[in-house]
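Action item from last meeting closed. Structure (200 res):
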């Protein structure tokens, strides 16, 4: 969530959005869709095969993820988190149940946040936010989900629900809040690498 990562993300987005979505020799594994206000029945989408998890675009003239691709990511997240951290999949699905995932290609700026090492940062563009135990916001950076903060925000969601809604460990590996360890940071890196390999 630091400025360097954000700017890199914007470069990716610009390149990804300039590539036409059809034609020879282009990437056909896009995980995003462009919405138009006059025909935006995809602003709200249910994620299939999940406990009432929903996807919502911030605007009717924005981009959104494909719900089936998000479903794949959620199932991989639950399976891998269960394996790595020894938590049952049923418990993890309970934490995630009813989650609203708001997405937008337009970044947000927040007045204060923490970087992954727990250092406070001010007026920083963020690529994702954990807003409440049942709501996250994720910036769409490229045509694939691995480059977004979705997995990172899902880790915040697990921590926030696990500690009964007290906090989502906003300072990550910092020591003001508990829950997030370097193992969580590595987990996010590994899962996003797997998603990259699968072109999701
Ligand atoms: Zn975070």
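Sequence:
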């Amino acid at each position: 969530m630091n400025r360097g990562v954000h700017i890199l993300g914007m470069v990716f987005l610009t390149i990804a959005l300039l590539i036409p979505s059809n034609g020879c020799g282009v990437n056909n594994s896009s995980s995003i869709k462009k919405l138009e206000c006059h025909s935006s029945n995809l602003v709200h989408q249910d994620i299939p095969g999940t406990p009432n998890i929903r996807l919502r675009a911030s605007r009717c003239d924005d981009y959104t993820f494909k719900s089936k691709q998000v479903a794949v990511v959620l199932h991989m997240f639950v399976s891998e988190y269960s394996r790595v951290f020894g938590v049952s999949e049923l418990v993890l699905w309970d934490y995630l149940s009813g989650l609203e995932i708001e997405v937008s290609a337009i970044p947000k700026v927040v007045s204060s946040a923490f970087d992954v090492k727990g250092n406070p940062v001010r007026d920083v563009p963020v690529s994702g936010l954990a807003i409440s135990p049942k709501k996250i916001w994720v910036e769409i950076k490229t045509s694939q989900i691995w480059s977004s903060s979705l997995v990172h925000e899902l880790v915040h969601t697990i921590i926030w629900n696990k500690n009964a809604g007290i906090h989502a460990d906003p300072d990550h590996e910092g020591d003001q809040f508990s829950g997030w360890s370097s193992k969580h940071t590595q987990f996010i890196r590994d899962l996003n690498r797997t998603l990259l390999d699968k072109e999701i």
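Note appended to the action item: The longest strand covers residues 108-114.
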